[in-house]
Amino acid sequence: MTPDPSSFAPDPGEPAAVNDLSQALALLARREQELAALHAGHEDWVRAVSHDLRAPLRHITSYAPLLRETLHGAGLQGVDAQEAEQFLGVMEQAARRLGSMLDGTLLMARVLRQRQPLHSVDLAQMAAEVRDALLAAEPADQGQAVQWRLPVAPVLLQADPDLLRQMLRALLDNALKFSRGSSPARIELQAQALPDGGLRWQVQDNGVGFDGARAAQAFGLFQRLHREGEFDGVGVGLALAQAVARRHAAGLALTGTPGQGCTVTVDWPAAPAG
C-alpha cells in the first residue's frame, strides 16, 4: 500500500521546515533579535532592582531610628513603649532581610549574564583562599575551633574563575555556618577523577544537617531548610551554586542527615577537546 503523501505534511501548529540556507539564516537572525530583546529587558530589570527598589528601602531603614527617637522624646513609657520598640525591631529586621534578598537577586543576575572564557583553575588553592577570607571575617575563637581538610596537591579543572570562586564561597560559607555548633566543627573538600575525564568534588561538614527528603527544594532562590531565626541568610547560597554549576554543565547534588552534617557533590565535566 502506497502511503498518502499528505500524512508527511507538517502540522499546522508547528513551524515550517527550513528547506534552504536563506531561510535558516533568516530564522537565526530573528532568534538573535529576540534574544537581544530579552537581554535588554533583563538589564532593565537589574537596574530597577539595584536602584529603584532600593530607594523606598533606604527610607525605611533611615526613618525607623528617627521614629524611635521621636517616641522616646514624646515620653512614651510602659507597655506602650515596649510594644512600639518591638514593632520597630520587627520592621528593621524585615528591612535588613529585604536588603539581603535584593543583594542575592543582583548576585544571581550577574551570574546568569556573565560570559567569560574558561581557564585552568586550581580548585585546592582557590578553596584555601576562600577559607582564609571566611576565617578573617569570623571571631577569632570561632575560626580556630574549625578543623579544615583541604586538598594539598593541585586539583585542576576548567572554569570561569570568578564564578567558581563565588560558588566555593557559597558552599564553604554554608558549611561553616551550619557546623558552628559542632565540637569540633569539621569541613572537608575532597576530589576524585571520574572515568569520563571529569572531576567529582565534595564539600562535607558535620553540622546540623537536614531532612534529606527536602534536598530538592534547597536549590530554589530564597528557599531555606531551617527556620529563619536559627541561622543567618536568606537562602541564596545553594541557588547561586546551582546556577554556576549549570553554566559549566556540571551536576550538583545535596545529601544530609539531621544532626550528622551535609554533603554537596559536584560532578564537573572534563575539559573540552582542544
From TrEMBL:
<keyword id="KW-0597">Phosphoprotein</keyword>
<keyword id="KW-0808">Transferase</keyword>
<dbReference type="InterPro" id="IPR005467">
    <property type="entry name" value="His_kinase_dom"/>
</dbReference>
<dbReference type="InterPro" id="IPR004358">
    <property type="entry name" value="Sig_transdc_His_kin-like_C"/>
</dbReference>
<dbReference type="InterPro" id="IPR050351">
    <property type="entry name" value="BphY/WalK/GraS-like"/>
</dbReference>
<dbReference type="InterPro" id="IPR036890">
    <property type="entry name" value="HATPase_C_sf"/>
</dbReference>
<dbReference type="InterPro" id="IPR003661">
    <property type="entry name" value="HisK_dim/P_dom"/>
</dbReference>
<dbReference type="Pfam" id="PF02518">
    <property type="entry name" value="HATPase_c"/>
</dbReference>
<feature type="domain" description="Histidine kinase">
    <location>
        <begin position="48"/>
        <end position="272"/>
    </location>
</feature>
<keyword id="KW-0418">Kinase</keyword>
<dbReference type="GO" id="GO:0005524">
    <property type="term" value="F:ATP binding"/>
</dbReference>
<protein>
    <recommendedName>
        <fullName>histidine kinase</fullName>
        <ecNumber>2.7.13.3</ecNumber>
    </recommendedName>
</protein>
<keyword id="KW-0067">ATP-binding</keyword>
<dbReference type="InterPro" id="IPR036097">
    <property type="entry name" value="HisK_dim/P_sf"/>
</dbReference>
<dbReference type="InterPro" id="IPR003594">
    <property type="entry name" value="HATPase_dom"/>
</dbReference>
<dbReference type="Pfam" id="PF00512">
    <property type="entry name" value="HisKA"/>
</dbReference>
<keyword id="KW-0547">Nucleotide-binding</keyword>
